[in-house]
């Protein structure tokens, strides 16, 4: 059975999507894992990073994104979503990466998310609106070693669907004052949700992103985070801030991961990050 990991932070722009994409690609190419990426964010960034905007538009017109799943659930029309058709195989734009599949997001999820909330308010005791994703991926989970869920920066119904499906979660953060503010509250909310739904959800760790080695502030914030006993673990492989990592968001063909992310520290940092998370996941999940 696949291990399911959600990437979550209530802040946008902290590297959630970039981390999810890189983890998926490195897990597959460097560690031989079969990976499914699930893009739960209506901003569709992970989707367009993996398949580009044109293919996303085609999928959206054919109704083969997660919008079809959640819309079908609201309208009680479960037949409308065919996961076999929605699954996109071998999606990474990196030629040397094999074995990363995708369930695409859609901009239409912005409205659909509201419909899901209405259903939840109408029947607050029901777990069904937060179990839509879990039910959908259950039949295919065996095909993968890891399922990575990229969540939107809120605790709305899409994120709750992600957390309900997840065995563990990662919190990517930039090591600065504003980005790290509120992390203990987020962890508390996630734990409360796990208790309420009677579903164990392990914190795999905090992932330091956009790290600037020349910044004293970054270093002292990381030290503070490491000392903070409310935080389970700061993953000891920090993703450097690098132009090439920012540029990796562009959907263009790349030969190798070194080409995509850069080989002046970035490739090694992402590889060690992935290796550490795989080890933690095997211990915790
Ligand atoms: N390590 C990094 N170095 C430089 N830029 C980065 C890095 N990680 C992410 N970015 C850029 O920062 C922006 C936000 O990253 P993204 O992964 O989309 O964050 P989130 O999903 O949390 O909103 C994007 O433009 C992305 O390309
Ligand atoms: Mg994102």
Automatic annotation (TrEMBL):
Transmembrane segments: none annotated. It comes from the Bacteria. Pfam families: AAA_31. This is Soj/ParA-related protein. It comes from Rhodococcus coprophilus. Residues 3-199 form the AAA domain.
